[in-house]
Amino acid sequence: MNLHAVRAIFMFEMARTFRTLTQSILAPVVTTSLYFVVFGAAIGARITEMDGVSYGAFIVPGLIMLLVLTQSVSNASFGIYMPKFVGTIYEVLSAPVSYLEVVMGYVGAAAAKSVMLGLIALATASLFVPLEIAHPLWMLLFLVLTAVTFSLIGFIIGIWADDFERLGLVPLLVITPLAFLGGTFYTIDMLPPAWQTISMFNPVLYLISGFRWSFYESGDVSVAASLAVVASFLAFALALVWLIFRTGWRLRD
Amino acid sequence: MPAERARVPDDAAVVIRGLNKTYASGFRALHAVDLDIRRGEIFALLGPNGAGKTTLISIVCGIVHPTAGEVRVNGWDIRRDWRRTRALIGLVPQELTSDAFETVWNTVSFSRGLFGKAPDPAHIERVLRDLTLWDKRDSQMKALSGGMKRRVLIAKALAHEPEVLFLDEPTAGVDVELRREMWALVHALRHQGVTVILTTHYIEEAEEMADRVAVINNGEIVVVDDKRALMEQLGRKQLTLHLQTPLAHIPEALSRHELALDDDGHTLVYTFATRDERTGVTTLLHDLAAADIHFRDLDTRQSTLEDIFVDLVRDAR
Ligand SMILES: Nc1ncnc2c1ncn2[C@@H]1O[C@H](COP(=O)(O)OP(=O)(O)OP(=O)(O)O)[C@@H](O)[C@H]1O
Ligand SMILES: [Mg+2]
C-alpha cells in the first residue's frame, strides 16, 4: 500500500478546499440560513409541530443531509474531473499507485470536506433553533457513511464525464430530485399513498430518516432499515468503482 | 504474484520487445518495437509528428496500455511489477500541464509523495535550486512563464529521485538560453547516474546531447545506433569548390565523378560518403588540375543528423 501517495492526494485536495476556505464555509452557512428563513420561519409559523418537534428543528437533519449529499457529489466529481480536464492526471497514472489508493485519496478528501461542511451547517442551524441530538455517534456515523457513499458516486461521475455538461447532468437530473423528494421538508405519511410507495424506492429517504432518527428518535422508516439501505448503497458504489477500474475504463487508453 | 526479475544485462535500463499499440480507434501507433536502453546513457528518440514517440513513452510509464509485447525497466516487468518500475521512472510530459493555483513547492512535494517517498524537504530544496526555481517556490503555477513551468515539471519528475528519466520534447517552445540550461541539466543528471531518454524534433539537440539515437517513423524503429557511428555510417560530406572562372557545363574529363554545378557555374559540388575507404577526393583534384580547372577556395560540410533523418524517413515512405 502506497500510503504516502494516499496522503499526498488527500492533502492536495484538502489544500484546494482550504485555499478557498471563506467560500467553502460561506456556502453552507448562507444556504442553511436561507432555508431557515424561507421554510423554518415562513412555513414553520403555520406548521407548528412535526413528529413532536418544531418544524424548524424537524427540517435540520434533512437540510444537512441535502448539503452533504450535493457537496459530496460535486466535490468528488470535480476533484477527479479537473486533473483529467487540465491534463495533470498523467502524473497519477504514471505513479506507483493502485486504483484503490487513488479512490482513497480523492474520495477521502471529498468526504472529509463534506462532513466538515455538514458540521458547519449544523452549527449554523443551532443558531436558529434549539437542537438536541439524541444519538451523536449515530449522527456522525450516518453523516460519514453518506459523505463517503456520495463522494464515491461523485468520483464515478467525474471519471465518466467527458465535458462540463455531463459533469453537472447527473447531479441535476438525479441527485437533486432524489434529495428533494427524500423527506427533508415533510414526513412521507403526509403524501398520497401512491407517492408514499414511490418514495420507499428513494434511497435518500432512508438516509434522511436514519439521520433524523439520530436527532429525534423518530423517522419515516426504522433505523435498521435506514442503516441497511445506506450500507447497501455504499456497497453498490464501491462495486461500481471496482468494476470501472477493473476494466481500466476511461482513464488509460 | 511473486516478483520475478528477468536476467537482463546489468547495464540494461529499459528493454522493449515486440511492442505493439493499436488505439481503440483502430489506429496502429506502434509496430513491433524492439529497443534496448543502457543504464546511464542519454538516449534520443527522433521522429516526425505522429511517429509514436509519446505513445512509446506513455506505455513504458504506465499511462497507456500496450496491445502486445514486453517492457522491462531495470529488469522488472512494467505490468507484473508496475509498482517497482513506476517508482523508478520520472516523466516530463510533452504538454505543459499544471494546477494553476498550486504553489511550486506544494506541487513538487506532492509528486514525491505520489511516488511513494517520505517527505524530504532537503531534497526538494536541492531540486528547486538546481533548476533555479528556489526563488519561485511560493509562487502559484499560473504566475510562472512557460519556461519556468517546464522546469517545474522537471522538478516534479525528479522529486522522487528516479533512476530513469523520460523527457518528452523538453525544449519545445523554449528559448535558446533555456535550451542550453536544459542540456546542461541533462548532462548533470547523467553524471549522477540517471538514464535519460528524450524525444525531440531538433536534430541538433540529439546531436548535442545523446549518446545513442533511435529514429522512429510510422510506429516503427527505423534505426538505432551510436550517434557517432550513425553519422559516420550514413553521413555524407560535401566538398564545395569555388571556381576562378565559371563553367557552362561539367567537362567530359570529370564525368566519372559525382559532381554538380551550382551558383551559375561558379561552384562545383562533390558529394561523397565518409564511410567509403576511398573518398575520391584525391583523384578529383588530380583530374581538375589535368582539365586545367582552377579554384579560389574550397570548403567541406559534414551532413548533420538532420540530413540523415530526412533521408531515413523519406526512404521509409
Ligand atoms: N488516444 C489516441 N487515440 C487514437 N490515436 C492516437 C491516440 N494518441 C495518439 N494517437 C495517434 O498515434 C500516433 C502517434 O502519436 P504520438 O503522440 O505517439 O506521436 P509523437 O511521435 O509523439 O508525435 P509528436 O512529435 O507530434 O509529439 C498519431 O498518429 C496519433 O494521432
Ligand atoms: Mg509526442
Structural features, described:
The complex is a heterodimer of chains A (253) and B (317). Chain A is mostly helical and 253 residues long. Chain A is built from 10 helices and 2 strands. Chain A has helices at residues 3-19, 21-43, 55-86, 89-94, 99-128, 136-160, 164-180, 193-199, 203-216, 223-246, and strands at residues 49-50, 53-54. A two-stranded antiparallel ribbon of chain A has the order 1-2. In chain A, helix 1 packs parallel to helix 5 and helix 2 crosses helix 5. Chain A is globular, with a radius of gyration of 19 Å. The model of chain A has no long low-confidence stretch (mean pLDDT 86). Chain B is α/β, with parallel strands linked by helices. Chain B has helices at residues 53-61, 82-88, 104-114, 121-130, 146-158, 176-191, 203-209, 227-234, 281-290, 305-316, and strands spanning 12-22, 28-38, 42-46, 68-73, 76-77, 89-92, 164-168, 195-200, 212-217, 220-226, 236-243, 259-262, 267-273, 295-302. Chain B has a 6-stranded mixed beta sheet, sandwiched between helices. A 4-stranded antiparallel beta sheet of chain B has the order 2-1-4-5, covered by helices on one side. A 4-stranded antiparallel beta sheet of chain B has the order 12-13-11-14. The longest helix of chain B is centred in the middle third of the chain and has 16 residues, at 176-191. Chain B starts with 11 loop residues before the first strand and ends with a helix. The mean pLDDT of chain B is 86. The A-B interface holds A 2, 4-5, 7-9, 11-12, 15-16, 19, 86-88, 90-97, 248, 252-253 and B 23-24, 58, 61-65, 82-84, 86-87, 89, 91, 93, 95, 97-102, 106, 109-118, 156. The complex binds adenosine-5'-triphosphate and magnesium ion. The site of adenosine-5'-triphosphate (ATP) has 13 residues of chain B, from helix 1.
